[in-house]
């Protein structure tokens, strides 16, 4: 049986095809995907795969970077320069967006963020650092209280992550999200007059 001729692609296009094939397969099948599956899905030779990704972890790191970048692009951090920002509403909206983003890519996310790969190549706390930046900006705008941004962000991110797990486990999204948002608002609320920090 004759095979159709392979399309000639620029190296970056070929690499992107491999990554996109891996993303589709990882989303559908999770950690059971192997190099052989990806090259078959992408229509490339195994040698071509290793030309772009010397190890399987190199591919997973690229996929992870694309996921983080996709969220950051879809939900950019505003600044007061662009106009007044409702910082409490922003935290609540971004928490809900994180949950929805996580749930829409659950199988892929489990493989990328909660696997042996994630232990071998830990990701810098992007979600936590993003929250730290929002807390600091909100404090500068007097929208948040005098909390310590680093540990507060870490604890709040854990709550956001747990909320995503709860919804994934069957809890009602329309109950979990408002409860989480109320928690976030209370944790970051500015002190009222006469209240001790």
Question: Would you mind describing this structure in some detail?
Answer:
This protein has helices at residues 11-29, 35-42, 46-52, 56-74, 87-104, 106-113, 116-120, 126-140, 149-168, 173-188. It has two domains: 1-54, Orthogonal Bundle (Arc Repressor Mutant, subunit A); 55-188, Tetracycline Repressor, domain 2. By secondary structure, it is mainly alpha-helical. It contains ten helices and no strands. The chain is 69% helix and 0% strand. Helix 5 (87-104) runs antiparallel to helix 10 and helix 8 packs across helix 9.
What is the overall pLDDT average? 89
CATH class of the largest domain: Mainly Alpha
Give the biggest sheet: none
Instruction: State the share of residues found in helices, binned by percent.
Output: 55-70%
Question: Helical stretch count?
Answer: 10
Stretches where pLDDT is under 50 for at least 5 consecutive residues are 1-5
Number of domains: 2
Shape: elongated
Based on CA atoms alone, the radius of gyration comes out at 21 Å
User: Could you please say which CATH topology of the largest domain applies here?
Assistant: Tetracycline Repressor, domain 2
Strand content: under 5%
Secondary-structure class: mainly alpha
Strand tally, please?
A: 0
Give the termini distance in whole angstroms: 76 Å
CATH architecture of the largest domain: Orthogonal Bundle
- Reading the helices and strands in chain order gives HHHHHHHHHH
Topology:
Elements: H1 11-29, H2 35-42, H3 46-52, H4 56-74, H5 87-104, H6 106-113, H7 116-120, H8 126-140, H9 149-168, H10 173-188
């Amino acid at each position: 049986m004759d095979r159709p001729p392979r399309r000639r692609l620029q190296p970056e296009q070929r690499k992107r095809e491999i990554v996109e094939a891996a993303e589709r397969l990882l989303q559908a099948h999770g950690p059971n995907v192997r190099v052989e599956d990806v090259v078959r899905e992408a229509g490339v030779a195994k040698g071509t795969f290793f030309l772009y990704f010397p190890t399987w972890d190199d591919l997973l790191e690229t996929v992870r970077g694309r996921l983080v970048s996709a969220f950051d692009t879809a939900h950019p951090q505003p600044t007061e320069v662009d106009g007044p920002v409702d910082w409490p509403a922003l935290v609540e909206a971004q928490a809900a967006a994180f949950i929805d983003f996580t749930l829409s890519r659950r199988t892929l996310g489990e493989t990328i963020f909660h696997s042996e790969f994630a232990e071998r190549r830990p990701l810098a706390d992007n979600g936590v650092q993003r929250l730290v930046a929002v807390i600091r900006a909100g404090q500068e705008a007097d929208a948040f209280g005098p909390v310590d941004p680093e540990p507060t962000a870490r604890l709040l991110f854990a709550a956001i992550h747990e909320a995503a797990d709860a919804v994934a486990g069957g809890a009602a999204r329309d109950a979990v999200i408002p409860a989480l948002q109320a928690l976030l608002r209370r944790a970051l609320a500015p002190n009222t007059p006469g209240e001790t920090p």
